[in-house]
Write a structure and sequence with these properties.
With 859 residues, the chain is of the alpha+beta class. Helix content is 49%, strand content 18%. It contains 32 helices and 29 strands. Strand 20, helix 23 and strand 21 form a beta-alpha-beta unit. The two termini are 42 Å apart.
Length: 859
């Protein structure tokens, strides 16, 4: 494939194969991802029928290594292009000397050629022909595409160069005829375009070289990861250390790592302790102390001690392999924003060829000479560049995902990187995300029994539970040397509490909400409220009242726990708010405890007393009011992560949460969340810049080449300059994408609010509670809106590319009667419409769509 037209052709052909459900073709790395049950042989035949070649590759680290920039022939291609350029420009210098140096400035030439126009013409023919032979790939691929009714960029170049050459050869024949007849031959020298035929090919080849070099740089991050893949490991067999190929190691094998060596596999430390440098995987520069029982990951560096480990994950299952797979998958998929460019690319080349023909005809009809009309048509062919359209999105995605991988931020696909750039609301699970997830007992209040008796009952009943609070109680009892006793008839009430029998006692334990449904706890209300205001979570214990016949339970004690807020939580939430994002906390705790955490961290809203299954409902409620990102780490977060527009699994989350999420953070620091959004925004902005450049280049360049501005401003374009512009267009797009490497991902000092991004959450049904931190300001906003009787609607609009689009949509909306103001953002693809009277959504939609944009929803 040579351009976006090729990409579109292959994609269209394969999508029509029976059994293919989806197909994504990447022009950047010449790969195609196909989903469905179609046969491999049918897909390959279809690609070959379209005029291209294809072969199936396996996924995984081994394939990534084979396909990496250092191994996939890219360097060979660059070397070949350099040789072609050297040979082409050597011949071109001679050609230009004779065609322009001598003719225009009278530079000296051998006596044989003096006044011998035919000899000069034949020399130019030979030199130009040699350049064309050196760059024959343009003609082979171009005309091959034409034969398969799939013209591409090479077709445009080949047609432009061939037309110049054929016209010049025809002029040479006419010159020889004139010489035979004794007529003047000098006038025909001005009609030769041999230098244009050669220069077009040479300059486009320079562009190809720059593009190839830039493409290589886009994969630097992936190459860096592939360079970390270990080749060997030292395993212990029958007490003897033996170095073996990494592929020979199996789970359960014992391997050793000496100080300074790279850890070859994921495993568990059996003996030894050391400081482990995990910066290559997580981006965290500070080494982590590890000891027996801790996990180690492949590609991290053992800095000090000798380690004896047991292999837990090998081959494609290691964390490094999974990181590489995510990065390669992200670069192989397509972002939704690329669809517009794909639609244009599919018809781009045929349309340009038609424009070239029309240009030639119009200039001939207007009375211009054949050579002039041909020059205009050739300029149209060689300045048009579908490559920039095809590369605009994938290069930004590849560089962006690579930058993320360097910092331990993994995007599973291109869409997740783009979607994160549109974030308006971030929903944070409290336990394990905002807090450490490791609660500790702070208060132990016994009622009518001793504290030791309460701890014995509590630890015994909680020992069979897997809830984090249960673990905290058991650990506290262990520290107090309490002996855990056996319980019977254990039953867990999901999201509420549990019940069991201890000896002859029937015990229930759980949250305030659960216990209050079984026992009257009115006399403990003030104490419970006090604990909640301190941000503590109380667990109540009650025993079946044996003095009454089956009449109920009596409270025997309260154990309160606190989960420490992560050290970087306040800073991270502050950064999110600085980005103009509304922050919501989800928790199963009661409202008072949630408020206490909110005050410490500064979140905007809390949604409390949620059962695990309620998180998904909360996310659905939030999605009605903006683009939602859910951040969580546990099994009970999986459904919410899937439901959100984007899901982020944070830190060492469960495998289920990681599978459900769109983005995976290798570190559990909360400040990586605003960093991931920062990168998403930068990537989305970069994609829009690339698309803008790709479109505006062709929108301005094609009319200029066609001579549209000749009569107006006297501007015209020589085909050689058109070729130079074309050669630089893709290079500019790729270079712009490479700027993402300069992004200071963890630096929030330059964060700014995106216009219209902050979303005030509607408080309804008692589900969402506004944090007291922002009550006053939000109340003023609501009162102000009531006084002005202002109604608002938010329109999601696709197709806006720049500030001019914003102005156009704004002008259109504000022209509608009843609209007082329209705040439009092409970065967020939306418009907030303020009205002083009710306006039908269809009216707003029709007005915008008449301007050429697509309205995907109105809230």
């Amino acid at each position: 494939m040579s351009c976006a037209a090729c990409q579109a052709r292959v994609e269209k052909a394969v999508n029509n194969v029976e059994g293919v459900s989806s197909c994504a073709v990447s022009l950047l790395n010449n790969t195609m991802s196909v989903e469905g049950d179609a046969k491999e042989v049918d897909i390959i035949k279809t690609v070959e029928k379209a005029g291209y070649g294809a072969s199936c590759i396996d996924t995984g680290v081994s394939t990534a290594i084979k396909e990496s920039n250092h191994n996939n022939g890219l360097h060979k291609t660059i070397s070949s292009l350099k040789k072609r350029i050297l040979a082409s420009f050597t011949l071109l210098v001679l050609l230009m000397y004779f065609s322009m140096g001598h003719m225009m400035w009278g530079w000296p030439i051998p006596a044989f050629f003096e006044d011998n126009c035919i000899a000069q013409g034949i020399l130019q023919l030979l030199l130009a022909s040699m350049v064309m032979i050196i760059n024959q790939n343009f003609f082979i691929n171009g005309f091959k595409g034409l034969i398969h009714r799939n013209p591409n960029m090479d077709t445009l170049v080949a047609c432009g160069s061939a037309a110049s050459w054929i016209y010049s050869v025809w002029m040479l024949f006419l010159m020889t005829d004139a010489a035979v007849k004794g007529a003047d031959t000098m006038s025909y020298m001005d009609e030769f375009y041999f230098e244009s035929a050669a220069m077009i090919l040479a300059l486009i080849t320079v562009g190809k070289l720059l593009e190839a070099i830039s493409k290589g740089k886009t994969g630097d991050a992936l190459d860096g990861l592939l360079g970390l893949v270990p080749k060997t490991a030292v395993i212990v067999v029958d007490g003897i250390e033996k170095e073996v190929d990494i592929t020979a190691v199996k789970p359960g094998d014992i391997f050793v790592v000496k100080p300074g060596e790279s850890i070859p596999l994921d495993g568990i430390i059996l003996e030894g302790n050391s400081a482990i440098d995990e910066s290559a995987l997580t981006g965290e520069s500070i080494p982590v102390d590890k000891e027996a029982g801790d996990e180690v990951t492949a590609a991290s560096i053992n800095q000090s001690g000798f380690l004896r480990c047991k292999a837990s994950r090998v081959g494609e299952d290691t964390m490094l392999a999974q990181i590489i797979k995510m990065v390669t998958d992200a670069s192989a998929t397509k972002a939704p924003i690329a669809k517009t460019a794909d639609r244009v690319a599919a018809v781009f080349v045929p349309v340009v060829m038609c424009i070239a023909v029309v240009t030639f005809i119009v200039w001939i009809i207007s009375g211009e000479e054949l050579g002039y009309a041909l020059a205009r048509a050739i300029s149209v062919l060689v300045i048009s560049c579908p490559c920039a359209l095809g590369l605009a999105t994938p290069v930004a995605i590849m560089v962006g995902s690579g930058v993320g991988a360097k910092h331990g931020i993994l995007y599973k696909n291109a869409a997740s990187l783009e979607e994160l750039g549109r974030t308006q609301i971030v929903a944070l699970d409290k336990t394990g995300t905002i807090t450490t997830g490791k609660p500790v007992v702070t208060d132990c209040i016994s009622v009518n029994i001793t504290e030791n008796e309460l701890l014995t009952i509590a630890a015994s009943i909680e020992s069979k539970s897997e809830h984090p609070l249960a673990g905290a109680i058991v650990e506290y009892a262990r520290q107090k040397n309490v002996i855990v006793q056996e319980t019977t008839e254990f039953e867990s009430v999901v999201g509420n509490g549990l019940r069991a029998k201890l000896a002859d006692k029937e015990i229930i334990a759980g949250s305030v909400k659960y216990i209050s449904s079984q026992v009257d706890i009115t006399i403990f209300s003030s104490k419970l409220e006090e604990l909640a205001k301190q941000g503590k979570t109380p667990v109540l214990f009650a025993e079946k009242d044996r003095n009454e016949d089956n009449q109920g339970y009596i409270i025997i004690g309260i154990i309160a726990m606190a989960d420490e807020v992560k050290s970087d939580a306040v800073e991270a939430i502050g950064q999110l708010k600085k980005q103009g994002i509304t922050v919501v906390m989800l928790t199963g705790d009661n409202g008072l405890t949630a408020d206490a955490i909110a005050k410490k961290t500064g979140v905007d809203y809390t949604i409390s007393e949620l059962l695990p299954q309620d998180k998904e409902k909360a996310i659905r409620t939030l999605k009605k009011q903006g683009h939602v990102v859910m951040v969580g780490d546990g099994i009970n977060d999986a459904l919410a992560l899937t439901t959100a527009d984007s899901g982020i699994a944070i830190g060492a989350g469960t495998d289920i949460a990681i599978d459900a999420a769109d983005i995976v953070l290798l570190k559990d620091g909360l400040n990586y969340v605003p960093a991931a959004i920062r990168l998403g925004r930068a990537s989305l902005k970069n994609i829009k810049e690339n698309l803008f450049w790709a479109f505006i280049y062709n929108i301005i360049g094609i009319p200029l080449a066609a001579g549209v501005y000749v009569k107006l401003f006297g501007w015209s374009l020589n085909p050689m300059f058109g070729a130079a512009a074309m050669s630089l267009s893709s290079f500019c797009v790729i270079t712009n994408a490479l700027r993402l490497n300069l992004l200071k991902l963890m630096d929030g000092s330059k964060d700014r609010k995106i216009r219209n991004n902050n979303v005030p959450i509607t408080i309804d049904s008692g589900i969402i509670k506004q944090s007291k931190v922002t009550d006053e300001s939000e109340e003023l906003i609501r009162n102000s809106e009531k006084e002005n009787n202002t109604m608002t609607k938010t329109m999601n609009i696709e197709g806006m590319m720049c500030g001019h689009c914003e102005a156009r949509v704004k002008k259109t909306l504000e022209a509608i009667e009843g609209v007082t103001e329209a705040i439009v953002s092409h970065e967020q693809n939306n418009a907030i419409v303020k009205m002083n009277q009710e306006i039908d959504s269809e009216t707003l939609k029709t007005a915008v769509e008449e301007q050429g944009y697509s309205v995907t929803g109105i809230i």
